[in-house]
Amino acid sequence: MSNRYRFTIGLCVGLGLLAPSRAAWAGAWTLDAGSGQIFATGIISTSSEIFDAARLLQPTPRYNKLEGEALVEYGVTDRFTLMVGPGLQHVDIASPVSAERTGLGYAEFGGRYRLLLADSWVVSGQVLVRAPGTFDGDNPAAIGFTDFQADLRALLGRSFSVGTMPAFIDLELGQRFRGAGAPDELRADAAFGIRPASRWLLLAQSFNVISEGAGSWGFPSYDYYKLQLSAVYELTPKLSLQVGGFTAYAGRNALQENGLVLGGWFKF
Fold it and tell me: How far apart are CA 185 and CA 213, in angstroms?
């Protein structure tokens, strides 16, 4: 594939990076030793526009993505939580690109370590290695999904009350190292959660990515900013159900992507 063609496809598909990492559900807190939880999510997204180099919206071949992801967390100790996350993925891009891929998505391996716990505050460090499910760099539907990645981040969480309603904030600053010609990234995520009723949790999350320059093999520099709103209902003490939606509201050389998130949270 020529560099020029790779640049064009990379621009059109936004490097395939707009879905949030499944680790975003976990936050800064660690689990008690011997306890665990599973976040299982389905993400459906589509786009027919891109933010170009001038941050203006331009039409692009329709890009559809369906992802099934899971994150399994287990408290090895009260301070260290082990994390494993497999994934499946389907991507199709309309004419004139006319490309499609179905198979394994990224698999994540790593852990989160609690550095400080004081009253309502928690500070943690997290390291994840992400292994790709494909190495087919000639398939336009696989561009952005073929590189090994390492994600290092610092996390800050605080719990508090809004009136009588329990609430929390979670702030994360990360450095993602990438391969296969894609540039490294600075990542800054934030979440606000509030419980208006005993079984309900409302979540507002912001996901922000800035590439550190351009990559090789025709990959452009890019950035994008996404807002996600969702509601989680506690069906039983061990099972909660989630529904939400997200939109990429600004960016550069990235898709203007909109999607739906459906999930189940399991405690064990």
Answer: 9
